[in-house]
Amino acid sequence: MTRVLAVGSEIFPLLKTGGLADVMGALPQALKAAGVQATTVVPGYPAILSGLRNATAIYHFPDLFGGPAEVLRANAASLDLLVIDAPHLFARQGNPYLGPDGKEWPDNGIRFAGLSAAAAAIGVGLVPGLSFDIVHAHDWQAALTPVYLAFHHGRRPGTVLTVHNLAFQGLYPATLFPRLGLPDSAFAMDGLEYHRHVSFLKGGLAMADRLTTVSPTYAREITGEDNGMGLDGVLRHRADVLSGILNGIDDSVWNPATDDLIPNRYFRGRLGPRAANKTALQQRLGLQESPGSLVIGVISRLTSQKGLDMLLDQIPFLLANDVQIALLGSGEPALEEAFTDAAAQHPGAVGCVIGYNEPLAHLIQAGSDALLVPSRFEPCGLTQLCALRYGAIPVVARVGGLADSIIDANEAALTAGVATGIQFWPVEPLALYEALRRMISLWRNQPVWQRMQRNAMATDVSWRGPAAHYTGLYESLMAGRA
């Protein structure tokens, strides 16, 4: 049995700020079902420590980047965890990356170097009785793990780095480098050095044995200048070890037939109760209770990446066509204010909740007729996968994982009866307008719309397929190192 040690900075259901946590929580379960023994290293934030069961200290670091630390072995939500309990690094309430002022903790570089160094030490057998074939690091917070392992003298496990969003790179002044405990040769063009700064992500991209990202299209996009975020040269150089594996979702959590967070359960063969969820959603967000209105949901970070500034300009057109908007999200203050103002200016037609609320996210999926994801770039996206599962027709930009997961309702797909959503390109206001116009036209033909819903709900968005791809990647890597 292949033994994998995953490393990440958050994990659902213990602590979540974004899609990374969903992957960290769901992928190990799917790997176990595929015959892989998966253990996950996470930081000992208060939220994680409070959710542990049967925690046992199995190793002591006298000094992990400025203070002592314990490795706790524990179980939570059927996950096998190794938790780095280092109070000087992780004993901070709230967002794991941001202080009370909303800015990054000034010592984030040291904090996540500590996570990576501890994981690397565990990976090479520092803890008696634990050994691993593969160490799989996720995103910049864990990207130094394959770097530390690359400089380990002696036998080491194979390393994989998965990039969930290339825009976040862990970039720090060069003055941090001497504190990382790496040899001088690591601060070089083919290592961590990036324009005289230290880039955690670049180091991992340069030194991991295999690289993956979270969709095939995004894997192609990031090797070009437009989406490479300054690292396209590194990625082109390592293109032979780069692959894209589309994320899944936990289809036991996101299942309209069993979901305790929605008022009325339903399934593909019985869509009738879905109408009552729409009414509940309209009531929850102060929208007019109108069964015939098309409700379009948005569950998103409110940032320029997500393209939601373009939605603001489309509100008059949507309202003129009896379309309501149900939005849940937070992010850039200007966008938060703009959508809050839109809700105030159009009561009964625009509903807006700033923040994140897991039950409301489920209700939006179960009660919206369509779900909008107009991202300018999107490594994978999870909300459109949930929308497929819940029969909310995704309206998406043709980028990254959105392109890979939605079958556009073009004439050929409609004739063949396989369409599951609507794609648009380029990511510009006129193309979005045309996609929304197509959405309204399809909505007015309810037999076609309902067939799209059933197609969407028949789509396999689980982790079973992705887990098989990861298992094949691990086996290939192990065979190449034998």
UniProtKB/TrEMBL annotation:
Domain of life, per lineage: Bacteria
CDD domains xrefs: GT5_Glycogen_synthase_DULL1-like
GO MF assignments: alpha-1,4-glucan glucosyltransferase (ADP-glucose donor) activity; alpha-1,4-glucan glucosyltransferase (UDP-glucose donor) activity
Chain sites annotated for binding ADP-alpha-D-glucose: K16
Pfam family membership, one: Glyco_transf_5
Keywords linked to the UniProt accession: Glycogen biosynthesis, Glycosyltransferase, Transferase
Known role: Synthesizes alpha-1,4-glucan chains using ADP-glucose.
Protein's name according to its UniProt entry: Glycogen synthase
Organism (species): Rhodopila globiformis
